[in-house]
Specification:
The chain has 7 helices and 6 strands. Helix 1 links the parallel strand 1 and strand 2.
Length: 229
């Protein structure tokens, strides 16, 4: 049974890996035996349309891609700028597609299988407040995960997603500092607490390992029970 989760000899690429969720998932993959290529905004600007192909080429042969990098812009709809919309969509959705495409092309050329793991959100299922672009992008990530799984499963490439719940990270600092929003969010979480990056470690190893070889197009919610409420 432990061999199902052993990633020795595998190489993983993790975007947005400098802190928070990305850093914790990268740590978990390393603990399971994988070599991890950690990418941050300092290494690659995912809003640059030429970046994804260059990232995959520079990383060399890899077996696992974790599309974690993301940004958020909060504003009321009437004040939401085109610039903020474009920035969020470029990083949170378009780069997921282009990185996955470049990675899949490499796998197919090598004739090997692999794992693509996208990071979705509770806002893949809900509308949210003051986050129109983020919600649209994360809803798109959910649909893209399923679409890519349909095409790539016959080639031995698994495409799945993790949907973190409300996590104590930089992206949620504004919510946690808002007494009313924080109270309302906690009231809906059956586990009674905000999640932490470490809560994703088991999920990422499962989806990256042989334990999930027959799992395609699924979204694993790690949310303290939020969606069950």
């Amino acid at each position: 049974m432990p061999d199902l989760f052993n990633l020795s000899g595998k190489t993983a690429i993790v975007t947005g890996a400098s802190r928070g969720l990305g850093a914790a998932m990268a740590d978990a993959l390393e603990d399971a035996g994988a070599k991890v290529v950690r990418l941050s905004s300092k290494d690659a600007d995912l809003s640059d349309r030429s970046a994804p192909a260059r990232i995959i080429e520079n990383a060399g042969p890899a077996d696992i891609l974790v599309n974690n990098a993301g940004i958020i812009r909060r504003a009321n709809l009437l004040d939401y700028s085109d610039e903020d919309w474009d920035a969020v969509m470029d990083v949170n959705l378009r780069s997921v597609f282009t990185l996955s495409r470049a990675f899949a092309r490499q796998l197919v050329a090598r004739g090997s299988g692999g794992k693509i793991i996208n990071i979705a959100s509770m806002l893949s299922f809900q509308g949210g407040i003051r986050v129109a672009a983020y919600t649209a992008a994360k809803s798109g990530v959910l649909g893209l995960t399923r679409a890519l799984a349909n095409e790539l499963a016959p080639r031995g490439i698994n495409v799945n997603a993790i949907a973190p719940g409300y996590m104590a990270t930089d992206n949620t600092e504004a919510l946690r500092n808002d007494p009313l929003r924080s109270r309302d969010i906690l009231a809906r979480i059956p586990a009674g607490r905000w999640g932490t990056p470490d809560d994703l470690k088991g999920a990422i190893v499962f989806l990256a390992s042989a334990a999930s070889d027959y799992v395609h197009g699924s979204v694993l919610a790690v949310d303290g029970g939020w969606l069950a409420r």
